[in-house]
Amino acid sequence: MQPDLIGLGWTPFFASQLACLEDAVQPARVVLASASRHHVQTAEGPRIAVVSGRLAHEAADRAALPTVGDWVGLRPGDGAGPAYIVHTFTRSTCLRRKAAGPAVEAQVLAANIDKVFIVTSLNADFNLRRLERYIDAVLDSGARPVLVLNKADVCPDPERYIDAARDVAPAARVALVSALSGAGLDALRAEIGAGETIALVGSSGVGKSALSNRLLGMEVQREGAIRASDERGRHTTAHRELFLIPGGGLLIDTPGIRELGLWSAGGSAPAGFDDVEAHAAACRFRDCAHDGEPGCAVLRAIKDGDLDPERLGGYLKLAAERRHLAGQQDVRARIEEKRRWKQISKQMRANPKR
Question: Which CATH number fits domain 94-253: 3.30.2350.10, 3.40.190.10, 3.40.50.150, 3.40.50.300?
Answer without folding.
Answer: 3.40.50.300
